[in-house]
Amino acid sequence: MSLHHCCPGATPAVSSMATAAAGGGSGSGISSTVQPFGLRGSGQGRLRLASRRSRSLLLRCSASGGGDGGGRPDPVLEEQRRRRAELTARISSGEFTAQGPAWVAPLAARLGKLGPPGELAAALLTKAAGGGAGARKGPELPQAVGSLAAVTGEAFFLPLYDLFLTYGGVFRLNFGPKSFLIVSDPVIAKHILRDNSKAYSKGILAEILEFVMGTGLIPADGEVWRVRRRAIVPALHQKYVTAMIGLFGKASDRLCQKLDKAASDGEDVEMESLFSRLTLDVIGKAVFNYDFDSLSYDNGIVEAVYVTLREAEMRSTSPIPTWEIPIWKDISPRQRKVNEALSLINTILDELIDTCKRLVDEEDLQFHEEYMNEQDPSILHFLLASGDDVSSKQLRDDLMTMLIAGHETSAAVLTWTFYLLSKYPKVMAKLQDEADTVLGDGLPTIEDVKKLKYTTRVINESLRLYPQPPVLIRRSLEDDMLGEYPIGRGEDIFISIWNLHRCPKHWDDADVFNPERWPLDGPNPNETNQKFSYLPFGGGPRKCVGDMFATFETVVATAMLVKRFDFQMAPGAPPVEMTTGATIHTTKGLNMTVTRRTKPPVIPNLQMRIISDSEERTCSTASMVVSTGEDQQGEVSTTRV
Ligand code: HEM
Questions:
Q1: ipTM (interface pTM)
Q2: Which CATH number fits the domain that encloses residue 220?
Q3: Structural domain for 232, as ranges
Q4: Is the overall model pTM greater than 0.95, yes or no?
Q5: 256 is in an annotated binding site
Q6: Cα–Cα distance between 578 and 589 in angstroms, integer?
Q7: Domain assignment present for 34
Q8: How far does the centroid of ligand 1 lie from the alpha carbon of residue 471, in Å?
Q9: From CA 204, how far away is CA 222, in angstroms rounded?
Q10: How far is the CA of 545 from the centre of ligand 1 (A)?
Q11: Residue 117: inside a domain, yes or no?
């Protein structure tokens, strides 16, 4: 399931495209038999140019290697290459030949010179032809036509990548009467997310997530967002995040114990769902001091959270918004189940808020910037102690938002990191070396985390290849210019982080998992130092509030797990394929074989010398250690002899 910022990103994209297409009414142009994407309104000449450029990019892409660090081909890379080659061939064959009115742009330009009536006619003509640029002037955006089949058939951001290689950093994707702007250019992404962020809202995202997040921080816009952001950001101060490292360690240790059992029983494990449970347990404690303990058992509340998450995911990918049909929404068993789940979660959240209020009232409170209650360091406690003047409904929306935001994303990062590690054994070996060197027998401390530099680079690189979410959603609130292209108010925009992170112009061997691309002693890569070509946590005023939290959480879990276990894809496991989701999910789980690591015995440095027949054989025993097996913690113990 997926929804988090999932919400903020990927999925609603599909929903909105699909919903628009389905509800598009007359002549939506959507047919399950048409080609996935076609070109419209760009003219044949432009198409040829685009094809040539795309071919050269494709060549660069496929030349980029993509070994597994262990000599085996990466099936994901292979599949991507196959699809790209197929698309290139189809573009070359003329399948995407422009059919639309190539005369629109020149005619609109001529009309525009005839004064205000002509300008109005030009705007109407452009709009009618699918353009929709506002009052500003400029060239027409390259246009592609999408079909519902193409979007629902696979992870929707994949065809967007192929189209990016063909049409460039910003183009219009038409779905029947609706259209969406697809942005993959770092300068334009920066403009929308940071430089002119006030001119953009969360648009469709807010509409889709309203039922679960209300006016929580992710979907909120305008004044509500400003006020809530100002209240929530201080809660994630440095002392809080440092305190959370103990929580990350404890939860990861619980997962280790579960894996210990699977390893002893020789059972394969489905890691994606285990990571989802790990991060649910973490975020419940971190946000409102609630122990879901979902790694140990399924209880009603865990089930309710998953029902709600699955619903949000379904809504964000469903072609028809059945949940809005008046009678259906009351009688549908699915909707009734969702309503029951939401009502259970709300009851629990209300109870937690009440309990926390009582605790804060009884506390001898001295609130300050880095305030934290040692017994209950949760964000909820901070917000209440800060005197945050907010309705219980808004507080609930915020808590629910953070629960979802901090759960699905981190789980997806861990899932794809372990998938990558299984494909790149050399990276895994280096990672294990670092974990062996840095981590002691106890739970990791902040000092340890700072030393886990290679692990951090592995997470940075995993987030580059599998950004969560892969797409950010915005809607223009006013006319604006995207590069040289004018756009109007009300445009739905998808900023493809996936495309930015894999752009062959920006990245060497863009598709290859190579943590070494980030120097260990260099700065932590982020949107600023990578000039918006790398933005795993977004950028600008709406950047993730949990970036540090999430980085530490995934670093701690990864280091603890690889220190204790080896992970391999389970024999006979189905191929790992992607689906969305707000975050990127596997289609059939991440089935792995987990084995307890036994450190290789240290070879004694024997300085044997035969003195004479009569003398004793001697050896320097001082440095000799042998492995004597595993202690109760599963660690290899050594004994001097
Ligand atoms: C690896 C894990 C995570 C990733 C990859 C991630 C990614 C993102 C991204 C890309 C955005 C920007 C969305 C947009 O601009 O539309 C975002 C926003 C947000 N994230 Fe995260 N996030 C992660 C973990 C967390 C955690 C742990 C929390 C809470 C503790 C959190 C809370 C939020 C919130 C509240 C926002 C909305 C901020 C706003 O709109 O002002 N995230 N996240």
A1: 0.99
A2: 1.10.630.10
A3: 209-596
A4: no
A5: no
A6: 10
A7: no
A8: 13
A9: 15
A10: 6
A11: no
